[in-house]
UniProtKB/TrEMBL annotation, chain A:
This is Transport permease protein. It comes from the Bacteria. Keywords: Antibiotic resistance, Cell membrane, Membrane, Transmembrane, Transmembrane helix, Transport. The keyword Cell inner membrane does not apply. InterPro entries: ABC2_TM, ABC2_TM_bact-type, ABC_2_transport, Nod_factor_ABC_transporter.
From TrEMBL, chain B:
It comes from Plantactinospora endophytica. It is found in: Cell membrane. SUPFAM superfamilies: P-loop containing nucleoside triphosphate hydrolases. This is Daunorubicin resistance protein DrrA family ABC transporter ATP-binding protein. Residues 5-235 form the ABC transporter domain. It holds the Pfam family ABC_tran.
């Protein structure tokens, strides 16, 4: 071996060791800042792999084309009136699709070992989870504007005002955050990445199809109508229809809000607990 | 002098399996401690506990006096960790990887960029800095991982098998970095399975086996604990092995073993007189020899003898060429 640090001469010549000062404690402000840095980390990944934005942009456009031009005539008589009916639905569907990323992203982070790095740093424990949900909410917001722009291109018009439009997007993203909490629990519980992906997609299928998203509720059998009417998806979509095209808003919006608050209150803490124990 | 890392009677079980069974350890400030041990010895478990990623079942551990559990936040402010698997974001550039950590550690956007650029330069990653880490070679990823653990200028650095899978050039470069850091006052706890790495870097070695510390000392001290040499006698015809064995036992040289796979007989010798006696005895019995040699214990052999059971020692001994 070459001259190593083992030799007494080298040991003696080392500079004196300075005992480090203590670190400032973590406050709420720091925790918020850490979550935002973590969210910006997730969003920066879109630069390295823009394909991660396909689910929020191309997918809803493809669904819109398929539903409006394939089923539209059959469901609503003509494609023009179906666009009017369907747009709030596809906006909500987009939010559900993007919510999958919360669970998948967390599972990926645990899989690569990067979470260990963050946990070994003096960083708020909440940062990874909160950052994930924030960045997915941002993606959901981007997705809303993309799909709206496309919808306008094929003939959709907002018949109310900009405030109503913003309220609709706010409600949709709020609903998305609630879905993300559930998705997070799945991502932090299921064993492997493919399982997370499947479950995070599958659990929403009854919500998506058992709703007023694609077709009017009146044609469904009575027992199904009972489910559809309390389905948060229906409530969110109906509220958005009211907000974008005129019609009842207060009833469905209230129901949707209760669902959103309830889901966050239940699944948020479960996700936090799962995050704490997951290795 | 207070220890940089002080570990007292640490135990940890996973399910029913004990991973650590009462580990005591002290690392002096500025020291490089080599933690050696076979797979499953508990090295990674110990490092994970010392990094606050896991908690021990009993016992205490402190970093500069801060308790691992009670003062976890203070401990995290002092330590850096480079794990066995490079923990970098594949979809982010090298620069972004480091900048994000700087931002998490409270640096301003500008300072985080400056720090990231300096580390990229130090680890020879400037050209690759703007490319996503997913496209890096194994060596580059390791260097980025190490750079990431240094963003916060840790006082204590844990390196968990840092050179596994690296080519010789990258290993040497990483060794230089570790030496420089130790010289600058960073305390380093290094786990490794490579004896040459431990020999090259560590001021002191600790052998962890089956969740316990089984030996401790400098390289020279550990080698001295495994006294004596081994002679290997290989007859042309392996059928002569029993004759060789009987001859040596008759000559008073006991403790030998037949290594059938290698077609050789191994016998420990403690002095030059015994070496000579072996040669005379074999010459007198008339067995034709293909080879005979004497090996002094390397750190490899010391490691094997101090950590492994007799059976696996013999099996491994046949692979040690010296």
């Amino acid at each position: 071996m070459t001259a190593t640090v083992n030799s007494p001469a080298v040991l003696a010549s080392r500079p004196p060791v300075v005992v480090p000062a203590s670190a400032p404690p973590l406050g709420l402000g720091t925790a918020v800042r850490h979550a935002l840095v973590m969210a910006s980390r997730n969003l920066r990944k879109l630069r390295g792999d823009p394909g991660q934005l396909l689910d929020a942009t191309v997918m809803p456009i493809v669904f819109t084309l398929a539903f409006v031009y394939v089923f539209g005539g059959a469901i609503a008589g003509d494609t023009g009136s179906y666009i009017e009916y369907f747009m709030p639905g596809i906006m909500a569907l987009t939010v559900t699709i993007v919510s999958r990323t919360t669970g998948v992203g967390l599972a990926v982070d645990f899989g690569t070992g990067i979470v260990d790095r963050f946990r070994s740093l003096p960083v708020a424990r909440s940062a990874v989870l909160a950052g994930r949900i924030i960045s997915d909410a941002v993606r959901m917001t981007i997705a809303q504007f993309v799909i709206l722009a496309f919808a306008v291109l094929i003939g959709f018009r907002v018949h109310t005002g900009p405030l109503e439009l913003l309220a609709a997007i706010g409600l949709l993203v709020g609903f998305g955050v609630a879905l993300s909490c559930v998705s997070a629990v799945i991502g932090l519980t299921a064993r492997s990445l493919p399982t997370v992906d499947t479950i995070a997609t599958l659990w929403m299928v009854p919500l998506q199809f058992g709703s007023s998203m694609f077709v009017p509720v009146e044609t469904m059998p009575g027992w199904l109508q009972a489910f559809v009417k309390v389905n948060p998806m229906t409530l969110v979509v109906d509220a958005c229809r009211g907000l974008l095209s005129g019609g009842e808003v207060a009833g469905p919006a209230l129901g949707a809000s209760i669902w959103i608050v309830g889901a966050v209150a239940v699944f948020g803490p479960i996700a936090v607990l799962r995050y704490r124990v997951k290795r | 002098m207070n220890a940089a890392v002080q570990v007292d009677d640490l135990t940890k079980r996973f399910g029913g399996t004990p991973a650590l069974r009462g580990v005591n350890l002290a690392v002096a400030p500025g020291e490089i401690l080599g933690l050696l041990g076979p797979n499953g010895a508990g090295k990674t478990t110990l490092v994970r506990i010392l990094s606050t990623l896991d908690t021990a079942d009993s016992g205490t551990a402190r970093v500069y006096g801060y308790d691992l559990v009670r003062d976890a936040h203070q401990v995290r402010a002092l330590i850096g960790l480079t794990g066995q698997f490079a923990a970098v974001d594949k979809d982010l550039s090298g620069l972004d990887n480091l900048e994000i950590i700087g931002r998490l550690l409270g640096l301003s956007r500008r300072d985080a960029k400056v720090r990231a650029a300096a580390l990229l330069e130090r680890f020879d990653l400037v050209e690759a800095g703007r490319k996503v880490a997913g496209g890096y070679s194994g060596g580059m990823r390791r260097r980025l991982d190490l750079a990431a653990s240094l963003v916060g200028r840790p006082t204590v650095l844990y390196l968990d098998e840092p050179t596994t899978g690296l080519d010789p050039h990258s290993r040497a470069a990483l060794w230089d970095t570790v030496r420089q850091m130790a010289y600058d006052g960073t305390t380093v706890l290094l786990t490794t399975q490579y004896m040459d790495e431990a020999e090259a870097l560590a001021d002191r070695l600790v052998l962890l086996d089956g969740g316990r510390i089984t030996a401790e000392g400098t390289t020279a001290e550990l080698c001295a604990r495994v006294r004596g040499r081994t002679m290997r006698i290989r007859p042309v015809d392996p059928a002569d092995l029993p004759t060789v064995a009987a001859t040596l036992v008759a000559a008073g040289l006991t403790g030998g073993t037949v290594v059938a796979d290698a077609g050789q007989y191994q016998v420990p010798v403690n002095s030059d007189e015994q070496v000579t006696a072996v040669v005379w005895a074999i010459a007198a019995c008339g067995v034709a020899l293909a080879g005979i040699d004497t090996g002094t214990p390397s750190l490899d052999e010391a490691f094997l003898r101090l950590t492994q059971s007799e059976a696996s020692l013999v099996a491994a001994g046949s692979e040690v060429s010296r």
